[in-house]
Design a protein that fits this description.
Elements: H1 2-12, E1 18-19, H2 21-36, H3 42-57, E2 61-62, H4 63-75, H5 96-111, H6 119-133, H7 137-150, H8 158-173, H9 176-181
Amino acid sequence: MQSAINTALYMEVGLKTEFTEKELEDLNNFISVVRRCGSWTLDYKKQLGRIKKGLDKATTLTNTDWVAVMEDAADAGFPRNSTFLGCKGSKPTTRGYTCGLWILFHTMLTSCYKASPGSVSVLRAIHGYVDSFFTCSYCRNHFLSMSEQMRLLSITDDQTAILAFWEAHKKEKSTDCDSALIPLL
């Protein structure tokens, strides 16, 4: 899961040149739930805290600002590289990141079930991350369309958030996007 976080922050978020107000808010929300809804080591949690602190200081954000935030976290030991083990695909360029993200998202949703910030807040942060930063436009648009059809942002209780996300994942696994990114092993 940490490899998915690292890839998300360095590779996807790192592609932005300037962040809109919405993107900055989505990034803040995502970092907050990642930090609070995972079983991280104390060191990793502190490193995520440095990233959050850097974002909290920002009223605007450029790529240069983001690189500085990430360099500060790296100085505190935040990993710069990602190695996918459990989600390793049949090719070096497939499966790892997207598989890791799904595992991360499910873990965060269940870890914050009936605990602060709650699975509903986690679901909204996931939606914001995908909307603002996920670089596969086909997959992003499919996820957002599916979210709208399933009314994911209208969910108000934690149990429904978890179950609806599992349903969304089942639907996502049946798309061309999934088969293109995750070849058979």
